[in-house]
Design goal:
The protein has about 80 residues and is of the alpha+beta class. The chain has one domain: Double Stranded RNA Binding Domain, CATH 3.30.160.340. The protein is about 30% helix and about 35% strand. A hairpin with a 4-residue loop joins strand 2 and strand 3. The longest helix has 21 residues.
Length: about 80
Amino acid sequence: PEALNVQLVNYKVSVIDSGMGTASKVRVFIEFSDGNCTWGTVGVSTNVLEASKKALADGYDYYLQLMRNPWLKLR
């Protein structure tokens, strides 16, 4: 319930080392917003789903940490 206002506002996938073929690493950037602030997270893996999961989990975790620790500030 704490994160109901959080929305994913941008999702971008970049191939880091395309010369590796299917073993290439991908970088997933996700930008979030709660209506007042925005923040972004990155996940890296050879699997786009794993990289996406990491970035998504980190984004929500960051927001929840911010809610529990008001002295932290979104930039």
